[in-house]
Amino acid sequence: MSPQVKLLAALRFYATGSIYGVIGDAHGPSKDSIGRAIKQVTKAINLYMFQQLVKYPSNFDNTTTGFFEKGGIPSIFGCIDGTLIKILAPSKYEEQFVDRKNEHSLNVMLVCGPNLKFYDASVRWPGATHDARVFKNSKLCERLQNGWRPFTGAILLGDSGNKLDILIYILYDFMLHVT
Fold it and tell me: Which segments constitute the DDE Tnp4 domain (predicted)?
């Protein structure tokens, strides 16, 4: 199937929500072929959009100023939290996706700036997973544990749902540079 046909099949599926309508229009490709094409196009779009929309700023001056204006705390480079995104019940490992509200979801960790732009995200965990585990297993946590900071004394602001030891370390690191 050509890339153009794959894209058209995916667009038709997005517009109608029906794979059968796509098959009827396509006159040839099987349901499995159409399904694979939709997954390929969706993955490509998601990857492109993620890279365009979820990224740290090249300069944190506006970020720290924005957070200071909102809350009076200096040196914040982002706010972190988890959120539950409802999904349809998956056919495999269904119980892992049942969250604390007894609904099927993904537990998504996000870091955003004062302008509500997303700087970081982890979207691969089932809803039953605790925020602390999502953070502990994220690339962001790994980077922070390896000493990465966007600037000296940077603070990542989070609630008690996140793993406190790394956040406390960041605050401690900040205090060393302030005093």
Answer: 80-164
